[in-house]
Amino acid sequence: MKKDFKKFITKVNSSTKLFTPGPASLTLENLSGLRPCFGRGDFKYDVIENRVLKNILKISGHKNIARLQGAASLALEIMISNFLYGNILIIKTGVYSDRLKYMSETSKKKYRYIKKIDYLSYKELDAIKKKYDWVVACPVETSIGYKIPILNLFELKKKCKSKLALDATASIGLEKNHELSDVAAFSSCKGLFGLTGGAFITFNEKNFNEIDEFNLNILNHLGKKMTGPYHAICSLDEILKNYKNFSFSVKINKKKFIRNMKEYLLYPKPNQPNLCTLISKKVKSDSQNVVLYQSRANIKGSVICHLGEVHLKSFSRARILDYIKI
């Protein structure tokens, strides 16, 4: 059976070469972890879920975790509604920070815990001097392939005497220092390399706003009052047991790509995320099997993502890059 799985994985990954930001290429471990399961009274599943959530907390560095069925966008809405209050600062990086702003404005109108929202460019970090209750940011803005080191955001948090909330969708697992945030939200299918459909909020303090709504109230997810991301969690079990082996593929792809494209890079090394790379040239391919990332941002070049050989783990040699050219 395992040989049949391996043949299937080889076939499907050969038929689709992904240069997109998630989900990653399909792995044997994603499939072998799947099983019939249920969220109540299924003790075998309880063991798997507890192990997966514990391993995610090791990666994030937080004390508590909520799991839910849905995209990272849902987790972000829940994070904003349940945690944020007072005067908040959102760091403007692009399409995904625009979403944070929209969600925060909606929460402000609906629940009124947020009093004021400032939206300032990442280029203005050094000039920010005001005190805030929360700083909110995307450490990795996929739409423009840009990274703000979380350590820099932590320094901003201290300067603003605030708490720090992260959209960690494109950074979790692949970047350092998530433990410096107070709360983070992300999905199962990008840097964690699981199947789509699961999302997580990791945090330290259990101080929540009172949210009079079922799906957006974090207590209902912590209390497991709705169907959870059972199969997404199962798909993560074997991955997280050997996470470094899988993340090696991403980092070797990144390393080779920036070496090949060094004259077209637009950001210095500290602002280069592991997940993706922005270059000044348009990338193309002669293969019908290639799926290129179409950024929602108005960029002149291309963002290339490095999740397409995750299934090869430490055997990856970034040969997938041979399928694209400028």
Shape: globular
CATH topology of the largest domain: Aspartate Aminotransferase, domain 2
User: What sequence of helices (H) and strands (E) makes up the elements?
Assistant: HEHHEHEHEEEEHEEEHHHEEE
Number of strands: 13
Protein structure class: alpha/beta
CATH architecture of the largest domain: 3-Layer(aba) Sandwich
Terminal CA distance: 41 Å
What value does the Rg take, in angstroms?
20 Å
As residue ranges, the low-confidence spans are none
Strand order of the largest sheet: 2-10-9-8-5-3-4
Beta-strand residue percentage: 15-25%
Total of domains: 2
Q: Please, could you describe this protein's structure?
A:
Helix 3 crosses helix 8 and helix 4 (72-83) packs across helix 5. The model has no long low-confidence stretch (mean pLDDT 97). The chain is built from 9 helices and 13 strands. The protein folds into 2 domains: 2-25 and 244-323, Alpha-Beta Complex (Aspartate Aminotransferase, domain 1), CATH 3.90.1150; 29-241, Type I PLP-dependent aspartate aminotransferase-like (Major domain) (Aspartate Aminotransferase, domain 2, 3-Layer(aba) Sandwich). The chain is globular and about 55 Å long. The chain has helices at 2-15, 28-32, 43-60, 72-83, 95-111, 150-160, 218-222, 230-241, 243-260, and strands at residues 17-19, 64-69, 86-92, 114-121, 134-137, 140-141, 146-147, 163-167, 183-187, 198-203, 276-279, 290-292, 302-305. It is an alpha/beta fold. It has a 7-stranded mixed beta sheet, with helices on both faces. The longest helix has 18 residues, at 43-60.
